[in-house]
Amino acid sequence: MPFYPKINNSGGGGGGGNTANPIWTKNTFSYVDFSDPSTTKTLNFTDPLNASAITGVIARIVFPFSGGSPTSVQLTLGTDLTSTAELTSGFEIDSANGAAADDTQSTNTVQEVGIAAPETVTITATAVGGNLSTLTGGSIEVWILLSTLPAASPP
Fold first, then answer.
1. What pLDDT digit, counting tens, does each position of 111-142 carry?
2. Is 18 within a domain?
């Protein structure tokens, strides 16, 4: 019998699965979410997680980011306690640099989060050639496959 994970379509900024079974958590972000008079903006993807594992990440461009002065906008996914690019890095989402609708980036690297202390999964957009606030369009979907690790057994 095939295994079909639960899906949590949380909309933006929330999500996370409090179950031992893997749950796909999806958030959609538009250019407005990243609008900032700077070249880098980081948003929270999940609430703080404890003893969890991320076993998959998929990022998909719904509409490429466009307009304004950036010549490149790249997306990274990580956590607030370690590298901002530990889950994905360098995903080009700007049409000025060749990004197109339905382009995807995925990874299946297992990453533990919240082992020593609660961690929040973050998503960062970094622009080259101009501030993120000058963008006029674009939307991405990001999915993470999240499961809660079982409690340690007594000795």
1. 888 888 888 888 999 999 999 999 999 999 99
2. no
3-state secondary structure 53-79: EEEEEEEEEEEEEECCCCCEEEEEEEE
> Residue 134: which CATH number?
2.60.120
The pTM score is 0.79
The tokens for 142 are 């990001």
Q: Are 98 and 23 in contact (CB under 8 A)?
A: no
End-to-end Cα separation, the chain, in angstroms: 34
At 81, the pLDDT band (50, 70, 90 cuts) reads confident
Q: Could you tell me if residue 121 is inside a domain?
A: yes
